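retry 2 of 3: previous attempt timed out while embedding adenosine-5'-triphosphate. Reduced batch size to 1 and resubmitted. Inputs unchanged:
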Amino acid sequence: MIIIKAGGSAITKKSEDFTPNMEVISNIAKEIKNAGRVVILVHGAGSFGHPIAKKYSLGKGYVDEFQLKGFSETRSSISELDTIILKALMQNGLTPVKIGTFSNFITSNGRIVEFHKEPLLRAIELGLLPVFTGDLVFDKSRVFSILSGDQIVSYLSKLLKPSRVIFGTDVDGIYTGDPKKEKVKLIKEVSEENIDEIFKFAKSTGDASGGMEGKFSEIFSIFDLGIEIDVINLTEKDNLSNALQGKVKGTVIKKKNI
Ligand code: ATP
Ligand code: IP8
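retry 2 succeeded.
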């Protein structure tokens, strides 16, 4: 089994609110279908979630009643993106099923403490393609919290021990800084020898859920489990197909002995 995280930077146009990148979404669906492998797809919220979440300061948890409007709007908007993705998967002959993040996860201080796993396990057993999204959830200490798709991926990795995890964004992997803002180098291989170093390359993305730093810390937990993580550019056609076959163009993060 392979867990794929389709980043919001790839599946939506982050510079235009509420705009899906239909070409990328459709390619992802085709490439998953052609690979014929058991996968779980987790996607980010991109421009369907982060701008509203920021506008209403939802990342801080419950502060004021004014946030409730933002809570409803964010969840509704993310659900629209989710539907677009489910439809694209179905149009390509796949049988996806949404596993609701809001209904199945509870966090405490932003970290998952409860997950109702039975729907996921049954969906896998039946041969459905489980689809998760980053979303808002109820939180034991902050009333509510943003639960990123990245954290869901690391949680599911602990639970299911996939053979590999693929993170896709709109850049070619992990760089020595933000490739959109600086002249930087792509890091092709990460192992126990340099994993600590990559944290200093995590530059803020302006997201409501921890951006690159958050992503790197989830990647670190998966790496600790001894699972290979590949970071690729999902906006380039065939990159996902190739990665699913083990031909990764991007950053490969794994322990030396696996
Ligand atoms: P979402 O959280 O909506 O799913 P995502 O998973 O696609 O989004 P982002 O938080 O948008 O991820 O992060 C991807 C962006 O991070 C890239 O577009 C890139 O510009 C930026 N970035 C910052 N630092 C780095 C780095 N060291 N290496 C690679 N990209 C970086
Ligand atoms: O895009 C964030 O999920 P992510 C969800 O996976 C919200 O970080 C509510 C913005």
